[in-house]
Amino acid sequence: ASYRTALALAYQSFGVVYGDLSTSPLYVFKSSFSGELRLREDDDEILGVLSFIFWTFTLIPLVKYVFFVLTADDSGEGGTFALYSLLCRHANLSLLPNQQALDAQVSTYNAGRARESGLSCSIKSLFEKRYKFRVGLLLVVLLGTSMVIGDGVLTPTISVLSAVQGIQIRATNLHDRYIVVIACVILVALFALQHFGTRNVAFMFAPIVIAWLICISGIGVYNIIRWNPKVFRAISPFYMYNLLSKTKKAGWESLGGIVLCITGAEAMFADLGHFSRFSIKIAFAGFIYPCLILAYMGEAAYLSKHPQDIQRSFYMSVPEAVFWPVFIVATLAAVVGSQAVISATFSIINQCSALSCFPRVKVVHTSNQIFGQIYIPEVNWILMCLCLTVTIGFKDTNMIGHAY
């Protein structure tokens, strides 16, 4: 029964946790080459960028989150404040008025003392003795939390805009303002669905993400075989060094676009309370990771032969026969992609409110089985207004990417 539950949660996680991460191919290459970096005939630039994407995506979501960060939950909850709470259980670091020493006794967390190394004891003692260090730690926690919430504003905007802009490839006369209007309508519909709860939203959204991943991985394989089977060379870290040594400043600036390949990775930990550690791990390692790697490699293979299409690389790499089905799935996936950071924001705000770092808000528990599945109406509508403001204000995914 536990395995069936884990598989069911893994299925649901596609629609909540991984939507954002899965839609990154819509804009990563475009953003990476939005500055001075340009594609040339020798493939060094595209292979260098692909190598950075591969290793960034491997080291952070796969190695860092799957093997390390997900093990640091606080009674099943994830996120920045969960880590802070966990630290406070093992050391006298707390500056929050409602987090007293007796909290550990009523927690479901197993507070058994682990063997501590000399270095960890020294660091622990340093923070416990110096008040300024503890203040600094709390400020870092608040800053990290604020950045994740900021991600909840920027990610829905860039995902939906990137997907909707694909229609301009076929409808070339469609003005940008109509794209913005369509994106705003989609965003309003997305936030209007939130009151149904994580479980219902996840069951609606999961098939879309799975269909999207199958589409982009299949297109990736097609592009690799047709355009450049040698694109697998980018697995070598040499191409990262080669890119930076050859392009200098332009290569360094492109890293701002490359990092967009891991937008939404923080949701793997922040949304932990909505699912389980095992379900998130098997969904990512077994399906998300290979599909996205194939998608990035396929897009790079296409760009190695069509450098002029860089600003619309994803949709231009889609075979014409399947363009419209892929466009529809991409638009739906972009909507789903926003769900990851929205759910993460609900969890983080709930933790902040419980620790008196945020005003008290109405928290609606939407599941009888998973305690962490919640909905916060006030936060939902504030996020919607902020997303609409960013969409109308920026209008361009490159600008939003730079802001990110």
TrEMBL record:
GO terms for cellular component: membrane. The chain crosses the membrane at residues 46-67, 135-158, 178-196, 203-225, 250-270, 282-302, 322-349, 370-394. It is found in: Membrane. Keywords: Ion transport, Membrane, Potassium, Potassium transport, Transmembrane, Transmembrane helix, Transport. Residues 9-404 form the K+ potassium transporter integral membrane domain. GO terms for molecular function: potassium ion transmembrane transporter activity. It is a multi-pass membrane protein. PANTHER family: OSMOTIC STRESS POTASSIUM TRANSPORTER, POTASSIUM TRANSPORTER 1. NCBIfam families: kup (TIGR00794). Potassium transporter. Belongs to the HAK/KUP transporter (TC 2.A.72.3) family. This is Potassium transporter. It comes from Taxus chinensis (Chinese yew).
